[in-house]
Amino acid sequence: MALIKKPVTGMKDVLPAEMQLRDYVIGVIKETYARYGFTSIDTPCVESLANLNSKQGGDNEKLIFKIMKRGEKLRLAEAKEENDLTDSGLRYDLTVPLVRFYANHANELPSPFKALQMGYVWRADRPQKGRYRQFMQCDIDILGEPSNLAEIELILATTSTLGKLGFKGFQIRINDRRILKDMAAYAGFSEESYDSVFITVDKMDKIGLEGVEAELIENGYSKESVDKYLGLFKGLEVNKGIEGLKFLAETLGDFLEADAKLNLEEIISSVDANKAAEFEIVFDPTLVRGMSYYTGTIFEIAMPQYGGSCGGGGRYDKMVGKFLGQETPACGFSIGFERIIMIMMDEGFKVPGVADKTAYLIEKGISGQMLSDILGQAQEARKNGEQILVVRMNKNKKFQKQALEEQGYNNFKEFYKNPLN
Amino acid sequence: MALIKKPVTGMKDVLPAEMQLRDYVIGVIKETYARYGFTSIDTPCVESLANLNSKQGGDNEKLIFKIMKRGEKLRLAEAKEENDLTDSGLRYDLTVPLVRFYANHANELPSPFKALQMGYVWRADRPQKGRYRQFMQCDIDILGEPSNLAEIELILATTSTLGKLGFKGFQIRINDRRILKDMAAYAGFSEESYDSVFITVDKMDKIGLEGVEAELIENGYSKESVDKYLGLFKGLEVNKGIEGLKFLAETLGDFLEADAKLNLEEIISSVDANKAAEFEIVFDPTLVRGMSYYTGTIFEIAMPQYGGSCGGGGRYDKMVGKFLGQETPACGFSIGFERIIMIMMDEGFKVPGVADKTAYLIEKGISGQMLSDILGQAQEARKNGEQILVVRMNKNKKFQKQALEEQGYNNFKEFYKNPLN
User: Fold this and answer.
1) Which run of H or E residues covers position A195?
2) How much is the average pLDDT of A198-210?
3) Which chain regions cross the lipid bilayer (chains A, B) (predicted)?
4) What is the ipTM of this complex?
């Protein structure tokens, strides 16, 4: 039989050690968000292509694994193009399914609706180290809360979760799409050019002020606008964090929406006052976040020591309305689950577990009543919360014990057919 | 925008109340099996079609959701048949992936390998009440243990899990494929006819002795063989349980493999002596279990009060060898996760949770420092393990509180902009 032992291209098997960590992290996430009143939901891994292609997914829409129609619906001979053969696919994120879920069940759900969704998503990306075609996403959203109570609670809950997982010294970088726009307007860019300008600003981390300047000029923007724009960022390099907001207020004048400034000030000071983990929250005027659906606050978890972002999110007040036909304010956070797992694995994180893990080594040939009596002991210990593994003794007992120690067994009991052995 | 609110045909959204139960059951399963030394693993939801179609899946192979090739690999114009367009699909069970996983990683895994795998599987079945095209499977397997230590531990762990979930008064029905064959041989059926005969015997529960007799005659078997065969089952109706094994030994003589009889006797007495839940384990000579890969012991969880089986499994000593090229004894149990969830929902099972669930109702317009102070109180309570939901107060406060009570909130705190209110 020609059997393929490897998983399909770009997807991976999860071995016990990693799975134990994944289960632990999932448990901490679920427990922590529950403390904040979030409830878990689940949606099918398969979505209709009509929804997946509704322009909310950006470039991910090009990476869909499509599922073939079946039976009579599959008309191969008549098919002219791919989409004649398929009408569903694997989800590439949890946002489209969440919004569909909310549109489908709004009447049965509390308002605001605080949802936690963890599940696999699939993207036909070119496989590369640490990047898989099937990976876990972890999204936390508040639908129906217009004020920044949503942002504050999302950030407090998420950072509290990270803290419980042992992370510290990270940053929450925060900005507001409205401030990004106000700055561009002040510099004289036209509204149609904002998206293109922001794509360049988004690279500030990598290419620096000079790189951004060069790229904007190269993209054909006037020297005057670029100078004025870059002047703001130079000023913001001196006036860091919350000082930056004051600097913008003074410099931009009426161009700066007072609401947007107040929004960030309130979020930053409330998070700072009430945080339950060691991190700092900073205003970052270069933060853009790729997806076009964001309408207000945007934020990101930055862990520079681990090479970048471990999640992010923001407010997307228009998207649910497009699906539901009724405006619904929304704000969400997506935790970079796979990245966090990778970091914890690399750091050799030890999952807290049962303290007493005992292996019973029983001689080959032990059976019947004798086996039953041994299992009785094991059952008794398990009732008391111990972890008991009952295995046959190998010829090379020393080697076997070493292997079991690597699996975390710290006690051994040996059983022989003839107890005098 | 034409958005589809419903999930795709035959799949379902999971609302918070059900999700809470599912998470709870998953937690109890993972914790209980860990006590028995099982470790969790995970495999991709997508498998190569070559593996899915390797004849281990029986009729499920007809129900595969196939995934279209992408990019250059998809040659629509040249495609003559379905399989020219696809080389992978969604898994229909967890057994094929487990065996592939084991073949791929045998060198990195302990022996015996005690695996727990929970995950979604997909079957393009005709949708019907309580039966979905995406559903959770929960498989527990021991690879590499030839003796009935595997069967006994699997049954003890599984029944202990069911007990912790509140199930009692159920039955574990057990049989051995070898005894089924010995009985058929004694009656004079030819070896080629066994599978067909067992399909009829499998209906004993529904059509009774007379129905089985009629169907066997109708299928062309000799009256002599049918009479002799039915005689055995009549004798077994009088000699129930372990007595049935003695009756078979006396009646079948050399036709009955002594090993098979001893195997069941040992399992039944050891499980009886060490069980950690209220159930009975009984020898059931009519138990067949559909899949052709079983080689020895077979068993099933019977809950007649809930209309049938809630899981089952058995020994399949030949299957891993076919994939790995090296014989590996194997024994597994599959828990009917979705059925168990459905029963617990129907019975109104209350998920044990946080005792103190408090909702803070805050007046609309509370923001800034005042909001921050309230969140400070919430953070303090959460640190102490309480669940705190912070929501805006609605105009109809009474209605809002009722709704929150239904979500399990039993304490309320109200906050007003003007504290004198």
Assistant:
1) helix A194-201
2) 93
3) none
4) 0.94
Query: Are the Cβ atoms of B37 and A145 closer than 8 angstroms?
Result: no
Three state DSSP letters for chain B? CCCCCCCCCCCCCECHHHHHHHHHHHHHHHHHHHHCCCEECECCCEEEHHHHCCCCCHHHHHHCCEEECCHHHCCCCCCCCHHHCEEEEECCCCHHHHHHHHHHHHHHCCCCEEEEEEEEEECCCCCECCECCEEEEEEEEEECCCCCHHHHHHHHHHHHHHHHCCCCCEEEEEEEHHHHHHHHHHHCCCHHHHHHHHHHHCCHHHHHHHHHHHHHHHCCCCHHHHHHHHHHHHHHHHCCCHHHHHHHHHHHHHHCCHHHHHHHHHHHHHHHHHCCCCEEEEECCCCCCCCCCCCCEEEEEEEHHHCEEEEEEEECCCHHHHHHCCCCCEEEEEECHHHHHHHHHHCCCCCCCCCCEEEEEECCCCCHHHHHHHHHHHHHHHHCCCEEEEEECCCCHHHHHHHHHHCCCCEEEEECCCCCC
Are A44 and B8 within 8 A, CB to CB?
yes
Enumerate the β-bridge partners of residue A135.
Answer: A121
User: Which of the four pLDDT bands, split at 50, 70 and 90, describes residue A420?
Assistant: low
For A242-300, write each residue's pLDDT tens digit.
899 999 999 999 999 999 999 999 999 999 999 999 999 999 999 999 877 899 999 99
Give chain B positions within 8 Å (CB) of A379. Answer: 156, 274, 276
Beta bridge mates, B68: B86
Global pTM value: 0.95
Which pLDDT score, from 0 to 100, does residue B55 have?
Answer: 81
CB contact under 8 A, A44 and B104: no
Residues 238-297 (A) with a CB less than 8 A from some CB of B: 266, 269-270, 273-274, 276
- Please, which residues 135-154 of chain A have a Cβ atom closer than 8 Å to chain B? 145, 147-149, 152-153
Q: Is B259 annotated as a binding residue?
A: no
Contact B66 A65 (CB under 8 A): no
Residue B189 has pLDDT above 90, yes or no: yes
Q: Does B48 touch chain A (CB under 8 A)?
A: yes
The pLDDT score that the predictor gives to residue B373 is: 96
Q: Residues for chain B: how many in total?
A: 421
Q: What share of chain A in percent tops pLDDT 90?
A: 84
Looking at chain A, which residue has its C-alpha nearest residue B402? A110
CA A343, distance to chain mean position in Å, is 13
- Residue A256, SS3 per DSSP: coil
**pLDDT tier, A3 (very low <50, low <70, confident <90, very high otherwise):** confident
The answer to the question of whether A284 is labelled as a binding residue is: no
Examine the pLDDT at B414 and tell me if it is beyond 90. yes
- Tell me whether B396 touches chain A (CB under 8 Å): no
Inform me whether the pLDDT recorded for A421 exceeds 60: no
Average pLDDT taken over every residue of chain B: 93
User: How many interchain CB pairs under 8 A, A with B?
Assistant: 295
Residue pLDDT, tens place only, B337-395: 999 999 999 999 999 877 789 999 999 999 999 999 999 999 999 999 999 999 999 99
Name the token pair of A211: 């790189």
Residue B402 Cα, gap to closest chain A Cα (Å): 11
Q: Is B293 annotated as a binding residue?
A: yes
| Contact assessment for residue A110 and residue A297, using Cβ atoms and an 8 Å cutoff | no
